User: Which sequence fits this backbone?
């Protein structure tokens, strides 16, 4: 019995190490979201930190509210891409097992 518990503990430690490595990889990823057919682009890390915002100069001639909407949409697009990348990474780690609803990986 002790041997099987030890084996389970080793597997859990190995999984924890893999998850920490996946978290590091995701944190270093830079993912781009965009809106308005590329008029506004947002580069975000896997930790949801915005690194760069690129705004096409033609948008600056528009109504400020239009630009605000495009920036918000580009950020939301980047967040969706980060979430997708996180789920894909977790799926790789768990061999395709889905996490229970409400459990987000890794952030």
Assistant:
């Amino acid at each position: 019995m002790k041997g099987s518990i030890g084996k389970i503990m080793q597997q859990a430690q190995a999984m924890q190490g893999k998850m920490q490595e996946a978290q590091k990889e995701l944190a270093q990823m830079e993912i781009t979201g965009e809106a308005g057919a590329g008029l506004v682009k947002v580069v975000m890390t896997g930790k949801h930190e915005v690194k760069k915002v690129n705004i096409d100069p033609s948008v600056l001639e528009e109504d400020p509210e239009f630009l605000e909407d495009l920036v918000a949409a580009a950020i939301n697009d980047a967040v969706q891409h980060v979430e997708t990348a996180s789920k894909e990474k977790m799926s790789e780690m768990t061999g395709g097992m889905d996490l229970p609803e409400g459990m987000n990986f890794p952030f």
About this structure: The longest strand covers residues 30-35. The helical segments are 2-28, 64-94. The CA atoms of residues 11 and 17 lie 10 Å apart. The domain at 1-94 is CATH 3.30.1310.10 (Ybab; Chain: A;).
